[in-house]
Amino acid sequence: STHLSDRIQNMSTSATLAMAAKARELRNQGKDIIGLSLGEPDFNIPDFIKEAAKQAIDDNYSSYTPVDGYAELKTAICNKFKRDNNLDYTPSQVVVSTGAKQSLFNVAMVILNPGEEVILPAPYWVSYSDIVKLTEGVPVEVKTSIDTDFKMTPEQLEAAITPKTRMLWFSSPCNPSGSVYSKSELEGLAQVLRKHPDIYVVSDEIYEHINFVGGHVSIAGIDGMYDRTITVNGVSKAFAMTGWRIGYIGAPEWIAKGCTKLQGQVTSGANAIAQRSVITALKAPVSKIQFMIDEFHQRRDLVLKLLGEIEGFKVNVPEGAFYVFPDVSSFFGKTLNGTVVNNASDFALYLLEHANVATVTGEAFGNPNCIRISYAASENELREAISRIAAAV
Ligand code: PLP
């Protein structure tokens, strides 16, 4: 008989990818859909990185790579950690993977035993909870709201800790809220964690450069945290290299070794050409990608202004990443154009069908009051999309 494993049946399909598929379907029916559902920069990869990839092909980088990544790339990653984050990692603490998504999966596989709990400040990135469940861990959501800028307080962290807590996972800048934890906020969390030395922290810093307040802070650099933090990063967002699939970690050596062991049986090393090009990307000064950050900053301001003019949208001021996460709960229970909107999923679907704009329900991120709007789109598209949304509500 044909049946999928319980493991796969119990897994949810990525909501962001599902929304993108639905938008594609409507487009195929001839509808003019503006897609603001994907977390993907709309820029081309900078030319100097493309050149490095072409050179790598000509130089015959075609064999299997070391499972944990080329030595030269791992050294470039260590230098990047020092330069951007003031973190001292050695190459033996670094593992290169097929996207930060694989890095995260590796870490969960390597650290969690069945039934161990992972604290996820909500809203969190969609895949965290499913990765944790797939690896037989138990996600423990800590709800935050727009009133605390979607950040978890030390008191909330303390209250969520049980004898089974094994890890805390969070992203800053955050997907989906755009919130950035300041140094003093991270100090506050670290103060709680120092009392619980068995809890490990996954710090997902993939949006570090897309930060409009400056001063990205890595929790691994805070007193007592280095030996228990896995710093996750990658090139998808900062260098617009989503399809090239390179992510990496800096971590205690025993964790890095575990990830390499796992990867050695599952995927082997990440793509050779992509790895070679990332050496070049990471050696380049951040100023080379500043134009993208500036552009995102301008779009954020535009989107905040336009959404702010729509009655019923409550928006925080995201300090990083390229998303806004408006609270739309004031629409719940209302009938719009004959459609009853009871929750964020209804609302996102309503916008897709009546405004031809694809967003993502906050439910997928652990917050049922909000929707996520990606502003990785041109200014014209953003203006058009938001004016359609305004008309539809
Ligand atoms: N972490 C966060 C917070 C993300 O938003 C994403 C991509 O959307 C990833 C990790 C995965 O990135 P990658 O493309 O490197 O797998």
Automatic annotation (TrEMBL):
- CDD domains, per database record: AAT_like (cd00609)
GO MF terms listed in the record are:
pyridoxal phosphate binding; transaminase activity
Transferase: present as a keyword of the record?
yes
**InterPro entries according to UniProt:** Aminotransferase_I/II_large, AspAT/PAT-like, NHTrfase_class1_PyrdxlP-BS, PyrdxlP-dep_Trfase, PyrdxlP-dep_Trfase_major, PyrdxlP-dep_Trfase_small
Give the EC number(s) listed in the UniProt record.
Answer: 2.6.1.-
Q: Which GO terms describe its biological process?
A: amino acid metabolic process
Q: Which keywords, in A-to-Z order, does the entry hold?
A: Aminotransferase, Pyridoxal phosphate, Transferase
Q: Does the keyword GTP-binding apply?
A: no
Secretion signal span? none
Domain of life assignment: Bacteria
Q: Which family does it belong to?
A: Belongs to the class-I pyridoxal-phosphate-dependent aminotransferase family.
From the Swiss-Prot or TrEMBL record, give the protein name. Answer: Aminotransferase
